[in-house]
Amino acid sequence: MINYIIKRLLALIPILIGVAIIVFLIVHLIPGDPAQTMLGERATDAALERLREQMGLNDPLPVQFWRYVKDLLRGDFGRSIMSNNPVSTELAQRFPATLELSFFAMLFAVLVGVPAGIFASIKQNSWFDNMSMMIALIGVSMPIFWLGLMFIWLFAVELGWFPPSSRIGVGLEFVPITNLYVIDSIIQQNFAAFKNVLHHLVLPAVALGTIPMAIIARMTRSSMLEVLKKDYIRTAFAKGLKKKMVIFKHALKNAMVPIITVVGLQFGVLLGGAVMTETIFSWPGLGKYLVDAIYARDFPIVQGGILFFAGVFVIVNLIVDLSYALVDPRIQYE
User: Where are the transmembrane segments (predicted)?
Assistant: First the structure.
């Protein structure tokens, strides 16, 4: 298994190089001038030219890219054009918010999608099966920006059940430690903050988790239906085993590999694709920060953020691959 992990990690290198090349070219070929953004519209031509020279923007693209690669090899993602802070620091400050939102969105998706898929497979062609799959189809088809706006309008504006934005209420005594607010509130035994943080998480997490929930439900149903047709399942029923034991101990366990695959892939997508949700709910995560960086032509932030997401996605997929052996001992890694 160690050799397999090393091979997968080494395979990460060409992937990140390819991502770095593509992102670098796209970012530098889109219209806009970072120097103009920093100095404003009233800046003189001399001031703009001086700043471009200081930032190396006047150098040819191959020279700029080679300088960027050398910095990456040293673990230096550069400095933000707008704040002049190290990109790694900016990403580290905002990633916990994205991680926390993605985790609870996936928790919602799994807790709803897996049971729905299981019961839909048991009650195949019943009203529950048809209704759950219709809801799943609607969930997959629904645009996240529209769903988020409808959630805010209905549950925040009209009913007032949940706050429309931000991670925590104003005025609460709370000092972040890890920037994972749920964990920080538990560490500090600040149950008022814990309740408030969860209250703020509900709308964005449910909105973000709706599409993964629908995909997981459909995959669970499909995988369970395939397993329930196997001979060993019919044998288990013929031996008189209880239905719950056959479904949850024998069928579900053997149907878990494709379900784990979908859960892992969707979690990686959530980590890198929460941009729309964070923007709608004003969630101070990495996705919203990248959108602001794109508008500000902050090249180092955009490049570093996308590279970071690419690395996280590959690592999540590696963890998913390794987890297969936990549910199916027949799988061996060499």
Answer: 9-30, 101-122, 134-156, 201-220, 255-281, 301-327
- Mean per-residue pLDDT for 20-25? 80
pLDDT band at 104 (very low <50, low <70, confident <90, very high): very high
Gap between the Cα atoms of 168 and 97, Å rounded: 11
HSE-up of residue 27 (Cα within 13 Å, Cβ side): 29
Residue 276 pLDDT = 81
Q: What sign results for the dihedral spanned by CA atoms 159, 164, 170, 173?
A: positive
Sign of the alpha-carbon torsion through 72, 278, 22, 30: negative
Distance CA 69, CA 17 (A): 9
pTM, entire model = 0.82
Residue with tokens 């298994």: 1
Partnered with residue 79 across adjacent β-strands are 86
106-123 confidence digits (pLDDT tens): 999 999 989 988 888 888
Q: Sign (positive/negative) of CA torsion 264, 265, 267, 272?
A: positive
Do residues 34 and 55 lie in contact, with contact meaning Cβ atoms separated by under 8 Å? yes
DSSP symbol at 177? S
The number of residues in the chain equals 334
CB 15 within 8 A of CB 314: yes
Q: Contact 251/228 with Cβ under 8 angstroms?
A: yes
| DSSP structure string for 41-88 | TT--HHHHHHHHHHHTTTS-HHHHHHHHHHHHHTT---B-TTT-SBHH
Q: Are 218 and 261 in contact (CB under 8 A)?
A: no
Q: What angle do CA 269, 271, 276 make, to 5 degrees?
A: 85
What three-state secondary structure class fits 26?
A: helix
DSSP letters for 126-176: SHHHHHHHHHHHHHHHS-HHHHHHHHIIIIIIIS--S-SSSSS-TT-----
Instruction: Set out the domains of the chain in order of their start, with CATH numbers.
Output: 92-286 (1.10.3720.10)
CA dihedral 281, 31, 313, 91 (to 10 degrees): -60
